[in-house]
Target: Alcohol dehydrogenase
Amino acid sequence: MGKYQLDMKSKVAAAKYQDGKKPAVSNKKDKINQLREAYLKKQQEKKQAGE
Model:
């Protein structure tokens, strides 16, 4: 075991902190694809609302 041991409350806090530090999208291509999909979806919604 390590020198420092966390109780359940501290483990939850540590996990929450680490989740906040992770980048949302690490890959540039993934980010571009997400933006493209969101744009296309928005365009479809506008087209359907106009009809």
